[in-house]
């Protein structure tokens, strides 16, 4: 899944012209999510289920993350999966 994330980040940089700081935020958010998934034995986007995303959000809340941080993480995940569907 790491390769897919890198392809997505290239897309954001080249096609959408996002700033480096924004790209780094996406990279961090998606790296956390991918690490979370891999820790649960999920290694392919097609295997990701709603319960995985809900568990990830719960973990963010339990780690004391602000609502704005949780929202940004969800936006990153949503955008990434939107990209995968288009590709």
Structure, described:
With 87 residues, the protein is an all-alpha fold. 75% of the residues lie in helices and 0% in strands. Helix 1 packs antiparallel against helix 2 (20-38), helix 2 (20-38) packs across helix 4 (67-86) and helix 3 (50-62) runs antiparallel to helix 4. The longest helix has 20 residues, at 67-86. The protein starts with a helix and ends with a helix. The model has no long low-confidence stretch (mean pLDDT 96).
Structure summarized in a few sentences:
This protein is about 75% helix and about 0% strand. By secondary structure, the chain is an all-alpha fold. The model has no long low-confidence stretch (mean pLDDT about 95).
Give the helix/strand layout.
Elements: H1 2-14, H2 20-38, H3 50-62, H4 67-86
Helix pairs in contact: 1-2, 2-4, 3-4
Taking the sheet with the most strands, its summary is: none
Rg, rounded, reads: 13 Å
Question: What is the terminal separation in angstroms?
Answer: 14 Å
Structural class by helix and strand composition? mainly alpha
Give me the number of helical elements: 4
Could you name the ranges where pLDDT drops below 50 across 5 or more consecutive residues?
none
Give the overall shape, derived from the CA principal axes: globular
Number of strands: 0
Roughly what fraction of the amino acids lie in strands? Answer: under 5%
Overall pLDDT: 96
Instruction: Encode the helix/strand succession as letters.
Output: HHHH
- Please bin the fraction of helical residues: over 70%
